[in-house]
Specification:
Elements: H1 2-19, E1 21-27, E2 35-41, E3 48-56, E4 63-65, E5 71-76, E6 82-88, E7 94-101, E8 107-112, E9 118-123, E10 128-133, E11 145-148, E12 158-164, E13 167-172, E14 177-183, E15 189-193, E16 205-210, E17 216-221, E18 226-233, E19 236-244, E20 255-261, E21 267-273, E22 277-283, E23 290-297, E24 303-308, E25 314-319, E26 324-330, E27 337-344, E28 348-352
Antiparallel strand pairs: 1-2, 1-28, 2-3, 4-5, 5-6, 6-7, 8-9, 9-10, 10-11, 12-13, 13-14, 14-15, 16-17, 17-18, 18-19, 20-21, 21-22, 22-23, 24-25, 25-26, 26-27
């Protein structure tokens, strides 16, 4: 009996390894792409395989899971923005549940809170954010709250938003600001600060990464080619410093895009579109300071988005203009990257494990 159980367990583990982890790819559909794609990823070898179309939809440029991964949410980055809910199926296909308006143009980011009760969408052209609740079947309600960042002086370009417990942070590239909201007793969010961190003029905060304890935040600046680091002091954040993402010898144009902390938070990664690199920083986990240790070529053009796999052993980059995903191994001790290989995917702009 023991031998039979062992054989069953061994076969189950083998099947899991062969099936791998599903990677979903958000794309732009103005070329060959038809929507959201999926690849299988082997967490032992770092190999991607079996490219398939998971759902036909227009410009799903950013994706987010529900906490239990039973549902996936995708923006439709169009002039009249949408956000759609999908059910994840066995084999990786996606089944559309419903689609809602985002009340803004060119929605470029969506995220879900850790409780799985709310989603927030950032509208780049609308200059606002839209908040949603979920129904029991994973579908989105109509927007429960729409918050406009535009003022009479500056045009807003909300670019990303993330929940942290009862708080909400929003990077606004147009307003050159990081907005901070708190949830009130009705479930809506109230503005606490429209300028949580001081940025250089025209820095262009785009995406950001919070440490797990919420005590440090790192914001990547699209226009300035830099990362702004700040530490939480009481209810506010105090600036640590601004760090260039570029190699000292690079003098060409550049637009930063994405940013992620390593799983152990000892390293920080940011993408450069133009230099076409991933900037690697060693992070002081005590005081939050950064030291740049590598600028690694992405082996492609225009790294819009990248991600670390669930094991933290691999980093994958979506190169929009060269239509490929590049895979790197991550040195656990140094944080540095080593290029492994790449695969062709049409207009990849978002990667989701």
């Amino acid at each position: 009996m023991k031998h039979v159980l062992y054989l069953i367990l061994a076969c189950t583990l083998l099947n899991c390894q062969q099936q791998g982890t599903t990677l979903y790819i958000g794309t732009y559909t103005d070329g060959e792409s038809e929507g959201i794609y999926q690849l299988k990823f082997n967490p032992n070898t770092g190999i991607l395989s079996d490219l398939k179309l998971a759902a036909t939809t227009k410009n799903p440029s950013f994706l987010a899971y529900s906490p239990d991964k039973k549902f996936l949410y995708a923006v439709g980055e169009t002039e009249n923005g949408t956000v759609s809910a999908f059910k994840t199926k066995v084999g990786g296909n996606l089944e559309l549940i419903n689609t809602e308006k985002t009340f803004g143009g060119a929605p470029c980011h969506v995220s879900v809170n850790s409780e799985g009760t709310k989603a927030v969408v950032s509208n780049y052209l609308g200059g606002n954010i839209a908040l949603y609740n979920f129904n029991d079947d994973g579908s989105l309600t109509e927007a429960s709250q729409v918050i406009d960042h535009n003022d009479t002086i500056q045009k807003s370009h909300a670019h990303s938003a993330q929940f942290y417990k009862g708080e909400l942070y929003v990077a606004d590239l147009g307003r050159n600001s990081l907005f901070h909201y708190n949830k009130n007793n009705t479930g809506a969010f109230d503005l606490i600060s429209s300028n949580l961190v001081d940025f250089p003029e025209n820095a262009g905060p785009r995406h950001f990464a919070l440490t797990k304890d919420g005590q440090f935040i790192y914001i990547i600046n699209e226009y300035a080619g830099s990362i702004t680091a700040a530490k939480k002091v009481n209810a506010n954040f105090e600036l640590i410093d601004h760090y260039s993402t570029l190699d000292s010898n690079y003098t060409g144009p550049n637009s930063c895009a994405d940013i992620h902390l390593s799983h152990d938070e000892k390293f920080l990664y940011g993408s450069n579109r133009g230099e076409n690199s991933i900037a690697v920083f060693k992070r002081n986990t005590t005081n939050g300071t950064l030291e740049k240790i590598q600028n690694m070529s992405v082996h492609g053009d225009w790294p819009r988005n990248f991600t670390l796999d669930p094991t933290g052993k691999f980093l994958l980059v979506a190169n929009k203009k060269s239509h490929n995903i590049s895979v790197f191994s991550v040195d656990a001790n140094t944080g540095k990257l080593a290029f492994m290989y790449d695969v062709k995917v049409p207009s990849p702009v978002c990667l989701l494990f």
